[in-house]
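Dear support,

We are seeing what looks like truncated structure output for some complexes. This example has three components. We would appreciate it if you could run it in full and send us the complete token output so we can diff it against ours.
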Amino acid sequence: MKVEDLVKFFGLEVKAGDGQLHQEVTGGYVGDLLSDVIAHSLRGNVWVTIQTHPNIVAVASMKELAAIILAGGREPDPETLKKAEEEGIPVLISLLPAFELVGRLYQAGVAGIVSC
Amino acid sequence: MEQTEERYPFHNTFRIEGGNFTHAGSVSSQVKRILKEERFPNSVIRRVSIATFEAEMNVICYAHWGILTLLVFSDFIKVAIDDEGPGIHDVDQAMTEGFSTASDKIRELGFGAGMGLSNIKKVTDEMVLTSVVNQGTHLEFMVKVFS
Amino acid sequence: MTLGDIQKLLDAEVIAGSENLGREISHAFAADLLSDVLAIARRGADGALLITGNMTPQVIYTADVVDLGAILFVRGKRPTEPMIELANQIQIPLLMTSYIMFETCGRLYHQGLKGCVEKAGDGAD
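Here is the complete output from our reference environment:
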């Protein structure tokens, strides 16, 4: 499954990284505490969060995540989008709250590491 | 016990220490308990408690100390918070969802996402925020009991 | 679904409120940031399950303030003694699982647990 498939299936709004949607998704991670994301997310994961500040791009880039999905319709800071374009990290928006979005991603076959 | 009009208004004050995360949230918990004892509708208690929690966290995250005053009337509840601290440079900007001056440390604790003030505005019927830089911030909000 | 079902589904450890495992839980939401918890709860989250990795005592106070049904800590994080004491005092059940939040939400959703809000903007603002 690729990022672009998720965009299609879940009607995600693409805010940045249009050219990077062909990446294969290795699984999912959800959370808003950056140190947890750094500790546990894996390369190629889609990351569901409600954090909108530019640091999320730095984390996604460092961990080589496939995309950031902002849950609950959160709008990214302009600075976040600028950085995301520079780093080639797709930033997507879903109107669903994190619980439902993750539930549906899971049912669509996106899995994560299971436990810590 | 029979509740009569003469019970109201009454008020309670609470002191909040800036930077003291150990008991952060306890004032909101007490406010909720007081309103519960007065048997206000659950939705009213929830709205006041949510706004009070955000306001309490703001003092703890950003100010030196503050005083929270709960004023209970029979038909509305008002909360006023006065703090001594750095104040807010641009009140309109501070009200914008997502805008935050929180340090990375505060964010890592799960606070400072820039949603607090807009949360308060959304759950209350009226809200006033004024601030003097390097002195402090005054916030008050009101929730009607019957709307 | 009961708290007991949730415990089994996620190999969770009951940290506080083991006498409440029969409690019915019909809704859940996931959040690490307290403001997000409060933003969701303002549309009503009475009796809901909060799934979180926020390990501050404030998460317990928040649960009290908005009348949540239980808190489930994820990512193998263990609540501190003061948090447990507070939870017992406030009478809010605490569970912990070593599953990450993604797996936790996925399993619960798959078993039919509903979210608290359907979409951003829903409910009374």
